[in-house]
Design a protein that fits this description.
Chain lengths: 304, 319
């Protein structure tokens, strides 16, 4: 005869009930880092449904595509021994890549910035953040920095593809590496300025505009209107106001810093500008500072 | 240890709306019900205690920490379940709660583990991997409770936790709250306008109305027997009253009944003997209780024996 073992709390395997958490609590710094990581992932719709990924990956793909095409063409040209001719054609390269994809970057910001600040406000998520060991400013900065990193990744991905392509398609890899390396610091500097300025402006508008459609429209308007107005003012013939507007409008500020970082002259369309080219960088820094202040202020005051 | 203390806490919205009016009270740990009708100031009080809102004047402490200056330290140890919907619809419960656990300072792996435990604890199983947008109200309320519990707080603030739940859902939510408070040793403050629910889970009640404190007492004190014995006879009410007064009892008339002050047990015997002496037929004789609803019917003074609510509990009439 077999003796059954006594039945001892088999059910409790499935119901452990509530248990205390005795592990480490990493505090505010960890919270901010988590928020930055979460914001970066949300910028690309990661961790959400498939539909949230459409816009970022379509725009991201469009921003990267030219680099892929260039590298592809270079591959073919190299096979036919025509890389020298390609170099001379100067199609799109480090110095003017961002200008070529400028509109796509603006659209990316317009589509994705409202996914962070607007969403949290629309769905009433803010009380859940503010009721935790996090300051309101931490929240605002964490979200903003996460988005900045997202835009920076969008800008640097094609540049890295371009760099790697150029180096490895060359017959003299070490030489090509040396030739192309000086391009990287200005590329990185320009990418940082663009993500800070475009990303910051887009985030500021979406912080104050919870409704997604309005935020997107507002961001696009902000990228398009100043250029139009500047054109009209210059057409009328007021170079003073024109200069001021050029120093304010995000597109032209970015053109200016691009010229600064790559050591070029401003294009012919800026004939009326009579300022040292560093003014554009100063303007970019001031604008970013204002944008950050506005975003912080918004979340200081918002009622939850 | 004092859990929560407020000192002349006042909150004004603009110049006209006074949400909290010089609220002063102290609370010990336990399951505390914060009752009051809609707009009484319950949510405002919770938000001030969390440091989400600044009081206009006065002060408050939670765990002896000042809400004005040590909000961060307070919020580290507190979980908050807001009244309104607060969950993004296109994310799963697991992802939402794990993310919020990390924001509360838990390392990533610990956040994941705690999330799984807490969601199971509130009764969400396979559905926790689905997007919250497809959840029922009951499931959402559970997720809201889970995110408040995930970092193992010492104190929970629950704002209308049974909002929008069907009767079965209410029962389950109240049972969860009761277990959280009693079995896991987490202090709970439940704000609700439904007295019947609060009564079932709380051991202490704070009643506020129009931003003023009505009462702050253990639940028992709200429903305790008052010092009044109601006596009803068929005829000769006045004769009885006269005789009872003659025997040194304090007596007042109340409709067909006489109310006798109960200082100790003796009035029971005195009334019985007097009724027998006078040959009256006794219709009923009962002790009166406060009922929770009376708090809101009678205003702030309803604690004293003077204005005993007219509605008696059906506690054994004596023939």
């Amino acid at each position: 005869m077999t003796v059954r073992p006594p039945i001892t709390r088999t059910g409790s395997i499935y119901d452990l009930g509530y248990r205390r958490y005795e592990g480490p609590r990493l505090g505010r710094a960890h919270a901010i880092w988590s928020l930055i990581g979460h914001s970066f992932r949300s910028t690309y719709g990661i961790g959400r449904g498939g539909r949230s990924k459409i816009a970022p990956f379509v725009f991201g793909g469009m921003a990267v595509l030219p680099a892929v095409v260039i590298v592809g063409v270079l591959t073919i040209a190299t096979r036919f021994g025509a890389e020298r001719a390609m170099e001379q054609m100067q199609v799109v390269s480090f110095g003017n890549y961002f200008s070529a994809v400028n509109a796509i970057i603006a659209l990316f910001c317009a589509a994705q910035a409202p996914e962070l600040f607007g969403r949290d406000q629309r769905h009433g998520v803010l009380p859940l953040y503010f009721a935790r060991a996090l300051r309101r400013t931490d929240y605002a900065i964490g979200r903003l920095v996460g988005f900045w990193i997202g835009v920076l990744a969008l800008l640097m991905t094609p540049m890295i593809i371009l760099f790697v392509g150029k180096v490895f398609l060359s017959t003299d890899i070490a030489g090509a590496f040396g030739d192309n390396l000086p391009n990287l610091p200005p590329v990185l500097a320009q990418a940082i300025v663009i993500s800070a300025l475009y990303g910051g402006l887009a985030m500021a508008i979406s912080a104050y505009t919870p409704r997604r459609a309005y935020a997107t429209a507002g961001i696009i308007a902000m990228f398009v209107l100043p250029g139009l107005v500047t054109g009209i003012v210059i057409g009328i013939g007021s170079s003073g106001i024109g200069t001021a507007l050029t120093l304010v409008a995000p597109n032209t500020v970015i053109d200016g810093t691009n010229a600064l970082f790559f050591g070029r002259e401003l294009g012919a369309e800026y004939f009326f500008i009579d300022l040292p080219i560093g003014a554009f960088l100063v303007s970019a820094v001031v604008e970013v500072a204002i944008v950050v202040a506005l975003i912080v202020r918004r979340f200081q005051r918002i009622t939850t | 240890m004092t859990l929560i203390a407020t000192q002349a806490l006042t909150k004004r919205y603009g110049s006209s709306i006074l949400a909290l009016d010089e609220l002063t009270f102290e609370l010990e740990p336990g399951i505390i019900g914060l009752v009051g009708s809609n707009g009484a100031g319950k949510s405002t009080l919770l938000k001030i205690l969390l440091g989400l809102l600044e009081p206009t004047s006065g002060s408050a402490t939670v765990f002896d920490l000042d809400v004005a200056t040590q909000g961060l330290a307070i919020r580290e140890r507190v979980g908050y379940m807001p009244e309104h919907d607060c969950l993004p619809p296109d994310v799963s419960a697991t992802d939402t709660v794990a993310h919020l656990a990390e924001i509360s300072g838990l390392p990533r792996t610990a956040a994941r583990e705690r999330t799984a435990e807490v969601l199971r604890h509130v009764g969400l199983y396979e559905e926790r991997y689905r997007a919250i947008g497809g959840y029922s109200t009951g499931m959402r309320q559970r997720v809201k409770l889970a995110q408040a519990l995930v970092h193992d707080p010492r104190l929970l603030f629950l704002d209308e936790p049974t909002n929008g739940l069907d009767p079965a859902g209410r029962d389950e939510m109240l049972e969860l709250i009761r277990r959280t408070g009693t079995e896991f040793g987490i202090a709970v403050v439940v704000a609700s306008h439904l007295l019947g629910e609060i009564e079932r889970v709380c051991d202490h009640l704070v009643a506020i109305e129009d931003g003023k404190l009505l009462r702050n007492a253990p639940l028992g004190a709200f429903t305790e027997r008052t010092g009044t014995l109601a006596v009803e006879v068929e005829d000769g009410r006045d004769r009885l009253a006269e005789r009872l007064t003659g025997r040194g009892l304090r007596v007042a008339a109340d409709g067909p009944a006489i109310l006798v002050d109960l200082v100790d047990e003796t009035p029971f015997d005195v009334v019985r003997d007097t009724v027998v002496e006078l040959g009256l037929s006794l219709v009923r004789m009962e002790q009166r209780r406060h009922r929770l609803e009376d708090l809101f019917r009678d205003g702030p003074e309803s604690g004293s024996g003077a204005t005993v609510p007219p509605a008696p509990t059906p506690a054994g009439p004596v023939r």
